[in-house]
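Please predict the structure of the following assembly.
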Amino acid sequence: MSVTTPAERPAPMLEVDDVSHRYGALQALERVGFSLAPGGFHALLGPNGAGKSTLIALITGLLRCRSGDIRIAGHSLSRHARQARRRLGVVFQQPTLDLDLSVRQNLLYHASLHGLGRRQARERSDRELARQHLTARADDKVRRLNGGHRRRLEIARALLHDPALLILDEASVGLDTASRQALNEHVRTLCRERGVTVLWTTHLLDEIAPEDPVVVLCGGRVIADSRAQALCHHTGTRTLQEAFGRLTADHSLAEGPP
Ligand code: ADP
């Protein structure tokens, strides 16, 4: 049997360390802590108002982290923001593509924002289009793409600078069931073939597989952090839906009425 000592264990790709955040008097996150091992698909779950968007805004730098620390590939966002952000790719909940530019133009524009030269920008754009199976659509206006293909283009854009951590914030919202499933499978393939670490936030539990590591947020706190199947085991339930219902109900009872 091989034994892994702490020194040999790979450093986490994302560390959220004792993070709290307030909007005025409202405590949106309270002492949130978890880490993601490098590689693989991880899910961040939580009912509406749990604090998922606030946490993503802190990790992506849209909000400033004033209490606690966030590290990406070992780089602290508060102390080494540039190094940390270089390792991060994000697909935001709200699409931000220019519909009147072509698929390739959208990528080239973004590559220039990352400071890539023309040749490198072209090479990387073509590489990502091929990986996302969008090469044949390169010269089409984005307006002509369906919702699933637009999401894939956003993933291609987020991966142009070769980040180690890819965050997808409710990326499947607005897609029909078949496109949702296809996107989810596509992202899982990316994890396997490219070794990128993915954090997938959702409130849709059918997007989670039993072996996925999941962090469950509720009322601004982490109420579970384990494999999805272990949540069922711990709560004595048969499905993730039931486990999630039990966990969030228990948390609400413990918190009492507002
Ligand atoms: P989720 O993404 O899980 O739905 P949010 O992070 O959006 O949760 O919200 C967490 C809590 O913070 C909620 O009570 C929400 O009403 C509140 N909140 C979110 N954004 C703001 C804001 N800009 N100003 C004040 N309160 C906010």
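The mean pLDDT is 91. The longest helix spans residues 177-194.
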